[in-house]
Amino acid sequence: MSRTVFVNGEYVAEEQAHISVFDRGFLFADAVYEVTAVLNRKLVDFTQHMERLDRSLSELAMAQPVSTDELRAIHHELIARNDVDEGLIYLQISRGAADRDFAFPDEDTEPTLVLFTQVRAVADTPAARTGIRVITVPDKRWGRRDIKTVQLLYPSLAKMEAKRAGADDAWMVDEQGITEGTSNNAYIVLADGRIITRQLSHDILPGITRRSVLRCVNDMQLTLEERAFSLDEARSATEAFFTSATGFVMPVVEIDGHTIGHGKPGPITNRLREIYIQDARDNAE
Ligand code: PDD
Question: Exactly one of 42, 140, 148, 159 is catalytic; which is it?
Answer without folding.
Answer: 148
